[in-house]
Amino acid sequence: MVHDQITPTRRQLLASGAALSATMVAGCIGGDSGPGDGLLYTQEVHPEGDFDPVVSNDAYSAQVIHQVFDGLYEYDYDLELQPKLAAGEPEEEQDGERYIIEIVEDAEFHNGDPVTAEDVAHSFTAPVEEDTDNRPEYDFIDVDGTEAIDEHTVQIDLEHPYGPFETLTVATYVVNADVRTDDPGDYNTNPVGCGPFTFEDWTSDEYVELEAWDDYWANPEPELESVRFEAAEDDAGRVSQILAGDTDAIATVPPEDWDQIEGEEGIEVYRTESPSYQYVAFNCNEGETTDPDVRRGIAHAFSMSDFVETNLGESATPVSSPIPPIVDDLGWDFPSDEWEEQAPEYDPDEAEALLEEGLDDPDDWEPTIIVPPDDVRIALGELIASRLDELGYDAEVQALDFATLTDTYISGDADDYEMYILGWTGGPDPDVYLYNLFHEENAGVTQGHFYEGSDDFHDNILEARETADQEERRELYVDVIDELVEEVPVMPAYSEHNTIAAQDYVGDVQPHPNVSYNPELVSDENNVYLEDDE
């Protein structure tokens, strides 16, 4: 049975030899012996090990963080923000350059410290002051003006108005400022949050263990007693685990295994639309792909829509711009049909002509395509390479682990890559896609294409994020995306749906549109539990 929760009108990367194996642990936390007291959840990739929200910048660590920390505001299943630690809506002052937010009075951290306005202020200013990977999401924060007015009132000042502040930035997890600043390194791997689960244990590349917090300050309290996160980085591994009953639930059902898992007795499959954006990016810093005709030639060498249909089927939607459909549907009304018509279609003759014209040395071009270690994006890289091989160019695909991949693509070195395939899960506003992935300020940080753009390109992105009026922002974004479609520094690929497969004794499963929230274990709308064997 497939539980579709797609909301079309709504809308974000060592081990001890004595460690217990997944099978040995399964008897006490679920898995092959059926339901136990805790949930065993198998992710696609091991968390990088940054469990401090100020520092962490990968979705798999974020999935753990979401259970341990509460946000000032949090997204519901329609990707609309609801107050969590906040007592109500933000109060805007000074023409959008100041926000006053009251926080609840009864929230506590796991160590018993009260959650205060000082903690909230620190959570907003630390990414900027410490220049973490999350700085692009906060670099408009005025750190001098952001402060606690009293114990339960925080003042957040901005350097300039920021249109998505109330739809993106306020969804910030709140850290314990005193504990964190006392020992930041320890906090990163032994975090103290105020969420429904406490952080108990972690072994790199093996597992993360959480326990339900008996004194959780909010409602509802978790039904589960514990959660263990493990990972199977190959799709076949996750599929075999769920089919064999060696795990309670897995993230991301591979499209090619969808029918088998769906038809398996005792397993349920769940799906929801997401704000994810998968893309093929070109090295515009150096090498042959600095020429837009070379980029267009590669885009004409294969059919992206056919690839998505064949390899992902109902698990994804093809996209023609960096803005996922679920975000566009939030009142932006972008000309997506026009962009789709302008996108390069499969035309091998045009591809051959453009490449011969654009390449400086066509006889010696051997492009490298770097991809993360998942089957679909490896398949996409291999498709591009095979089509280029057919045209006489010896392309190479390198599958790299996420840490190596990010260290590689930020180099801008054509010897390292001329294309890379990655994805980005942002949120319900175009800014988090266009600023992070295309503005020159983030070249070599959250992007590796180093696209110089036209005279107005980067200015338009910056002006849009500093403008509160949505229609004005829309016009600026249309100009930006028009150029992206025309010059092809990246090829939009698809927006992948969030999917979870779970044993049927796992109750109240609802995948969240925001992948970093999954599994959503405790919310106002669901509370995951394990049924008894009886």
From TrEMBL:
Taxonomic superkingdom: Archaea
Source organism: Natronolimnohabitans innermongolicus JCM 12255
Descriptive protein name: Family 5 extracellular solute-binding protein
Gene Ontology molecular-function annotations: peptide transmembrane transporter activity
Keyword annotations: Signal, Transport
Family: Belongs to the bacterial solute-binding protein 5 family.
GO BP annotation list: peptide transport
Solute-binding protein family domain mapped to chain residues: 80-443
Gene3D superfamilies linked: Dipeptide-binding Protein, Domain 1 (3.90.76.10), Dipeptide-binding Protein, Domain 3 (3.10.105.10), Periplasmic binding protein-like II (3.40.190.10)
GO terms under cellular component: ATP-binding cassette (ABC) transporter complex; periplasmic space
Pfam families with a match to the protein in the record: SBP_bac_5
Matching InterPro entries: Peptide/Ni-bd (IPR030678), SBP_5 (IPR039424), SBP_5_dom (IPR000914)
